[in-house]
Specification:
Order of helices and strands: EHEHEHEHEHEHHEHEH
Strand order of the largest sheet: 2-1-3-8-7-4-5-6
CATH class: Alpha Beta
Number of domains: 1
Helix content: 25-40%
Mean pLDDT: 95
Shape: globular
Oligomer: single chain
Number of helices: 9
Radius of gyration: 17 Å
CATH architecture: 3-Layer(aba) Sandwich
Low-confidence stretches: 1-5
Structural class: alpha/beta
Strand content: 5-15%
């Protein structure tokens, strides 16, 4: 079966030869553990369709990142059990790592990140830090009896021996707050970003080594990102997220990234387009540093 028949290429551009591409986008339309609004299964297609309207030149990077070679892969099947889907994501990411390409997932719910992190840890060990933009800490050990729920993703990252740093968070459970205190984690809350002029330095203080970028679109304020299943007031704006990405990627190896939790709203292109631009900017920064 030719799985590329229904493939929507990122930016609407012809695909580069696989042997010269430096990044690979892996759509994973996963929607199994959502706990409020639905629609994440439509997220990858919504983002990819909107991406055809994104300007190829990025004014912040002063370059056209697409020219570095960005593949769009067929979507990962998501009909099986959650653990099976995570295994398939792990296999897809491992294949791109073996080929020397930067893997970038397009979700789907945040659970897809677990597969990518497993592949990276198997490939290189836990020598990198997960930098996560998210309205929520996602540090529950299980949610509704499910340890692979989207609400448990960063807890699974800790289980893999990885360091995790949150930015833009503004909602958590008492259980998660107890874990934050127990482990000495230091999430940078959204209110700190809005009120502390030194927030950016504090977000990356002491950070060493490679990073993985996990971009949950609900980290953005719902005024500019209404299309997500668990919106929270008080999120970050476009320039704040761009500044964070620029500082996070500068001088560091980005080993992988994902963008998750987009749930497109019929007749509203704002969120889909914003997510596409955010992914393009993150890819450009990551590839520019790898160069």
């Amino acid at each position: 079966m030719d799985h590329s028949v229904n493939l929507i290429p990122f930016l609407g551009m012809p695909l580069p030869p696989a042997e010269t591409a430096r990044a690979a986008l892996i759509p994973v339309p996963l929607e199994k553990s959502v706990s409020y609004g639905g629609g994440t299964g439509l997220g990858p297609a919504g983002l990819l369709m909107a991406s055809a309207q994104v300007e190829l030149y990025d004014e912040l990077l002063d370059m056209e990142p697409y020219a570095l070679g960005i593949l769009t892969r067929p979507r990962v099947p998501v009909r099986g059990a959650l653990e099976e889907v995570v295994d398939l994501v792990e296999e897809a990411v491992a294949a791109e790592l073996a080929a020397g390409r930067l893997p970038a997932l397009i979700g789907g719910e945040h659970t897809v990140t677990v597969g990518a992190l497993r592949a990276l840890v198997k490939e290189r060990g836990p020598d990198f830090t997960v930098l996560v933009l998210d309205a929520h800490l996602d540090l529950r050990d299980e949610y509704e009896g499910n340890p692979l729920s989207h609400a448990c993703v960063m807890r699974r990252a800790l289980d893999l021996g990885l360091a995790v740093r949150h930015v833009g968070s503004r909602s958590c459970s008492a259980e998660e707050m107890a874990l934050v205190r127990e482990l000495g984690l230091k999430p940078l809350w959204a209110r700190q970003v809005h009120k502390d002029p030194e927030w950016l330095d504090k977000a990356l203080q002491g950070l060493r080594g490679p990073v993985y970028l996990s971009l949950d679109v609900d980290g953005l304020d719902p005024a500019i990102m209404p299309a997500t299943g668990t919106p929270e007031p008080g999120g970050l704006d476009w320039d704040q997220v761009s500044d964070w990405l620029l500082a996070a990627c500068r001088g560091r190896e980005v080993v992988g990234l994902d963008i998750v939790e987009l749930a497109p709203l019929p007749g509203q292109a704002l969120s889909d387009f914003t997510a596409a631009r955010l992914l393009y900017r993150a890819l450009g920064l990551a590839l520019k540093e790898r160069a």
